[in-house]
């Protein structure tokens, strides 16, 4: 029987790569995204809906639709997130801090909250949270993002403990710098804050990775498919970095 997979933030970037990879394995895919534009560009045979991952009513409606359409859920990828501000902690506005935590952390919480009863009833399921190596190492000039990503790991480990007796696994994937528009924006903002160029910042990031390379969205998707498979049937409560090994999370430039 094909897996039934929900991916929040599934319209672009890591989320879309996950959706494509699960679909290629024969899974039925449901994606949510805040952008109707990116959803319109996704395959017609995917279930999809636009909304804010941190909105309880939206996520509740998503799971009501899953129950009606599929009668259950096998994999939930709590992937929706935002980069948050790039600034020293004293320069971060409280509302920007709260918004970053809401989308990243509360979004993951809501996905797990509504998935748990459904998965408990069927005594199986996989919850995957997209954290970050910022949730392992910290990230100067990105306090809201690092705080959210550390908290996601605490949430995941608690889910693994609460849900394990019901045959449900929970893990977090910790990407390094993922090629794409989001990290490009972060690099540009950091370069401006430090009075240097984006090329210098990018080189500094790459120098802090053993494999001297950024990762791709497909690298993250490959790990998600594995963690949702029977090959990972006893992998739970774990943080799996996919980052080429971060040696130095704060390369000086």
UniProtKB/TrEMBL annotation:
Keywords from the named record: Oxidoreductase
Entry annotated with the keyword S-adenosyl-L-methionine: no
Presence of the UniProt keyword tRNA processing in the record: no
Pfam families reported in the protein's UniProt record: adh_short_C2 (PF13561)
Highest rank taxon of the organism: Bacteria
Regions crossing the membrane: none
InterPro entries: NAD(P)-bd_dom_sf, SDR_fam
CDD domains registered for this protein in UniProt: SDR_c (cd05233)
Similarity field: Belongs to the short-chain dehydrogenases/reductases (SDR) family.
Name of the featured protein: SDR family oxidoreductase
Organism: Hoeflea alexandrii
